[in-house]
Amino acid sequence: MEYILETKNLKKYYGQEPNITRALDGVDVQVERGEFVSIIGTSGSGKSTLLNMLGGLDIPSSGSVKIGGREIGKMNDEQLTVFRRRNIGFVFQNYNLVPILNVYQNIVLPIELDGNKVDKSYVKEIIRLLHLEEKLDNLPNNLSGGQQQRVAIARALASKPAIILADEPTGNLDSRTSLEVMQLLKMTSTEFSQTLVMITHNPELAQIADRMIHIEDGKIVERKENF
Ligand SMILES: Nc1ncnc2c1ncn2[C@@H]1O[C@H](COP(=O)(O)OP(=O)(O)OP(=O)(O)O)[C@@H](O)[C@H]1O
């Protein structure tokens, strides 16, 4: 079977002996197309490092990452940038919105960067579901943290990427809104057969996924509730 995301013996070390940090220490992860997987672990366990590797944002010390069957270590920077933009939607903790663009422009930016036509009715539906209709002309600075996060989620969904990688996507939302946003992410990813990988330290949110991957000290550990 070909997985949409697959790592083999993935290692990421920072620094050098004797002060080496093994952020990832031999990680084998497989994610099936359309799956919703949460990666859960305590602070410093390696979650963000793993997500960055799965999204081709960082280079492994050793081991491999395959996205859609393609080994990303074999692509040059430009190929990887285009590949990422076409296949992966990112939702970061800190939103990464463009401050000089308004909400609507931020949402459709990745589509336009790729020279594609905006599916207006789809984007409108995302905007409605994320309660952003009234904010489309606002600049990010004029929004609350939670609103900015919803814009970031809308942007990730708008280009219908095959894969959505989310790093604590609801970290700045209250618990009720977090659950709502998570349900929305789950609903849209199911509707468009998207693969969703989300990292969190919140067990309640992690359980919304089809499957949980536990990480401790840079290693995947098996837990009973996975089965
Ligand atoms: N650029 C870096 N340089 C040195 N060490 C790093 C770097 N990035 C991460 N680390 C270390 O690697 C380990 C894993 O970090 P990572 O950010 O992946 O953890 P995390 O599980 O996402 O944590 P958190 O939940 O706090 O965001 C930590 O010990 C961290 O200090």
From TrEMBL:
Matching SMART domains: AAA
Q: Which UniProt keywords apply?
A: ATP-binding, Nucleotide-binding, Transport
Q: Which domain of life is it from?
A: Bacteria
Family annotation (CDD domains): ABC_MJ0796_LolCDE_FtsE
One example of the protein's molecular function in GO is: ATP binding
Specify the ABC transporter domain's residue ranges: 5-227
Alphabetized PANTHER family for the sequence: CELL DIVISION ATP-BINDING PROTEIN FTSE, LIPOPROTEIN-RELEASING SYSTEM ATP-BINDING PROTEIN LOLD
* Annotated family: Belongs to the ABC transporter superfamily.
Name of this protein: ABC transporter ATP-binding protein
Native source organism of the sequence: Blautia celeris
